[in-house]
Amino acid sequence: MLKDELETLRLKQSSEYLKLLEVVKLTEDLAQAIDRRDEVSVRILLTERETVLLQLQEMDVAVRDCLLSQPEADAIRLSALLNGAEPQNPDEEALSAQVTKKQQLLEKINLMDQRISTRLGGKRSFYNSLI
Question: What burial class does residue 36 get, using C-beta atoms within 10 Å of its C-beta: 0-12 exposed, 13-18 middle, 19+ buried?
Answer without folding.
Answer: exposed
